[in-house]
Amino acid sequence: MKTDAYARLQEVAGPVSRETFDKLIAFETVFRKWAQRINLVAPSTLDDAWERHILDSAQILRLGGSAKSWLDIGSGGGFPGLIIASMIAERAGASIDLVESNRKKAGFLQAVVGELRLPARVHAKRIEDVHGAIRAPEILSARALAPLPLLLQLSAPWLQAGTTALFHKGRDYRQEIEDSAHQWGFDLVEHPSLTDAQGVILEIRNLRRI
């Protein structure tokens, strides 16, 4: 089982050390314990958490290249923020900021960061309240947070400063892109999801208001 899971992780995320894989296994164990007490993800997805949440999150590591500075907004149950934190832990000087306004979920994030010794900082605040406190990272991520027009508004201070966004999106993403075009211009690359046949990862650069 673990051998198959390790092979699948590398298929989705690229070369990954055995130590990183073990860290993700440890994360899954902690996540499942907390998920019994607070609502971290839809209960119907818990049985397939490895593929639906962990691997789905891990795939953006490949798209982020060798980036060392990351920001995840609306981190919720740790996807993709805690997964990225686990996977960049071996990169010297790498770190990720996690922004989550829900106190219970922020408590979960902080507990996992401490228990697994992850290179992450948790900000238990609204996204709008940390715009001036977090310097523009190389990569900004968000998953299952908001429609694209609102995502662009929330992340604009960083994207307009040169940050690249990697946003998980589902089957309605084309309509969201169309809705965004009324207010924003941007460079876009659509990456098919490796875990969801109807999903994509939207890579957005050079955000500008129209």
What is shown here, in short?
The protein is 40% helix and 20% strand. It has helices at residues 2-13, 18-35, 49-58, 60-63, 81-87, 103-116, 148-159, 173-180; strands at residues 69-73, 95-99, 120-123, 139-142, 164-169, 184-192, 200-209.
Explain this structure.
It contains eight helices and seven strands. The protein has 210 residues and is an alpha/beta fold. Strands 3-2-1-4-5-7-6 form a seven-stranded mixed sheet. Strand 4, helix 7 (148-159) and strand 5 form a beta-alpha-beta unit. The mean pLDDT is 94.
Ordered list of secondary-structure elements with their pairings:
Blueprint (H helix, E strand, L loop, with lengths): L1 H12 L4 H18 L13 H10 L1 H4 L5 E5 L7 H7 L7 E5 L3 H14 L3 E4 L15 E4 L5 H12 L4 E6 L3 H8 L3 E9 L7 E10 L1
Parallel strand pairs: 1-2, 1-4, 2-3, 4-5
Antiparallel strand pairs: 5-7, 6-7
- Derived structural class: alpha/beta
Can you count the helices? 8
Radius of gyration: 16 Å
* Strand residue percentage: 15-25%
Enumerate the spans where pLDDT stays under 50 for 5 or more consecutive residues: none
Distance between the termini: 51 Å
Percentage of helical residues? Answer: 40-55%
**Sequence of secondary-structure elements:** HHHHEHEHEEHEHEE
Mean pLDDT: 94
Largest sheet: 7 strands, mixed
Strand order of the largest sheet: 3-2-1-4-5-7-6
Shape: globular
**Count of DSSP E strands?**
7
